[in-house]
């Protein structure tokens, strides 16, 4: 025979325990999502603050910001495809090796650094080697650049065409 007061006692004791377990699960899932914001991942954008060969530094940034001039194409490899920049340095507090594709801002100028990430510079700076005269999102077609561009760069993912020329300083 089951006594009604034992069921009531079980409900009073087990109910809050189950509720706490549910709250704990929700909080742990939520914290996983929030910790991934700002994480180094393929497709994330980075702001390179130092492109020196022996001391590269960057932070994960907003891809729509003109300061985030690169997007991560590959993690953990220094064997980047031609045209991609090799980053071997610190992102935040962690050491990383990355392959980066441009996320250049239209109207901005950069100093080419070979296989390292190009540095964002003033268009009047003597080291400025190219200016992005046009950025075309959603297309990888250099024929869209027009006559004011002397060179171009296309990125397959996300599809982007960068039309570039010498800066007029």
Task: Give the topology.
Blueprint: H1 4-36, E1 45-50, E2 56-61, E3 70-75, E4 85-91, E5 94-102, E6 109-111, E7 119-121, E8 130-137, E9 151-155, E10 160-165
Parallel strand pairs: 2-4
Antiparallel strand pairs: 1-2, 1-3, 3-5, 4-5, 6-7, 6-8, 8-10, 9-10
Structural category: alpha+beta
Tell me the radius of gyration.
25 Å
Helix content: 10-25%
Beta content comes to 25-35%
The separation of the N and C termini measures 94 Å
Order of strands across the main sheet = 1-2-4-5-3
Average pLDDT confidence is 81
Regarding quaternary structure, how should these chains be classified?
A: single chain
Largest sheet, in brief, is: 5 strands, mixed, barrel
The number of distinct helices, counting runs of at least 4 residues, comes to 1
DSSP strand tally: 10
Globally, the shape reads: globular
Low-confidence stretches: 6-11, 13-37
* Helix/strand order, N-terminal first: HEEEEEEEEEE
Written description of the protein model:
With 169 residues, this protein is α+β, with helices and mostly antiparallel strands. It contains one helix and ten strands. The strands form two sheets. A five-stranded mixed barrel has the order 1-2-4-5-3. Strands 7-6-8-10-9 form a five-stranded antiparallel β-sheet, with no helix packed on it. The model is unreliable at 6-11 and 13-37 (pLDDT under 50).
